[in-house]
Specification:
Pfam families: cNMP_binding, HTH_Crp_2. The protein has helices at 3-15, 101-110, 114-138, 141-152, 168-175, 179-191, 207-214; strands at 17-21, 26-29, 36-42, 45-50, 56-62, 67-68, 86-90, 94-100, 153-156, 159-162, 195-198, 201-204. The protein is an alpha+beta fold. It folds into 2 domains: 3-129, Jelly Rolls (Sandwich), CATH 2.60.120.10; 139-214, Winged helix-like DNA-binding domain superfamily/Winged helix DNA-binding domain (Arc Repressor Mutant, subunit A, Orthogonal Bundle). A 4-stranded antiparallel β-sheet has the order 1-8-3-6. Helix 3 (114-138) packs antiparallel against helix 4 (141-152) and helix 4 packs across helix 7 (207-214). The longest helix is centred in the middle third of the chain and has 25 residues, at 114-138.
């Protein structure tokens, strides 16, 4: 993110209200439409759906520093009820700045350079969602896990790490596989020296090799 965009982010925080959400709190769905854009400061959120049978499917994660829910600020209607199935939900306790749609749109209109950052962010989310869907179709659980880890990693000098709220159970739900499978595959990555554990957090020791394995089919 450029210094200019960082300044914009700080300005938007100043227009918002600091709020806290508990795990499983809904930030957005088409049924209640809170009409807020959120700047995620701490925690983990996800765009997901739950089938009538109770099966969850996750399409996109949001990590600290992400804007959450800015697309609905512009796409305010849909041709059918399909999107009532989708929600943005806190997957852990979260701290966020909530900004009303109208305030957010007024800010963006007054700062047209900020459009580029929004566009790039939307494209990055779209690209990650496509990669995730492709990895799931591929059927190779090991490659799918490698793809997910490269997608979800955040840089904390001198290593990349996976957000502490990504338990093996959370990763299993994202990949549509059993938790025991994730445990086995993460054990394989540990044995290869690619990842390690730091408390409850996964540390990526060799991002280059992890990326190479992910790009084999990702």
């Amino acid at each position: 993110m450029t210094e200019s965009n960082m300044n914009y982010m700080n300005a938007l925080r100043g227009l918002g209200t600091l709020t806290h959400k508990k795990k499983h709190d809904c930030l957005y769905n088409r049924a209640h439409m809170d009409k807020y854009v959120y700047c995620l400061e701490e925690g983990l959120c996800a765009l997901h759906s739950v089938s009538p049978g109770g099966r969850e499917r996750i399409y996109q994660y949001f990590l600290p520093g992400d804007f959450v829910g800015f697309i609905p600020a512009y796409a305010r209607s849909y041709p059918d009820d399909t999107f009532y199935a989708f929600s943005i939900t806190a997957k852990s306790a979260c701290t966020l700045y909530q900004i009303p749609y109208s305030t957010f749109r007024e800010f963006v209109e007054a700062h047209p350079d900020f459009y580029r950052w929004l566009f790039e962010t939307a494209i990055a989310h779209y690209d990650n969602a496509l990669k995730h869907c492709y990895a799931l179709q591929d059927g190779d659980n090991f490659v799918s896990l490698c793809c997910a880890l490269t997608e979800l990693a955040i840089y904390e000098d001198p290593h990349y790490v996976i957000h502490k709220d990504f338990s093996y159970s959370e990763l299993a739900g994202y990949l549509g596989i059993h938790t025991i499978t994730v445990t086995r595959l993460m054990g394989k990555l540990k044995d290869m020296g690619i990842v390690s554990k730091r408390g409850h957090q996964t540390v990526i020791q060799d991002m280059e090799q992890l990326t190479a394995m992910a790009q084999a089919r990702c």
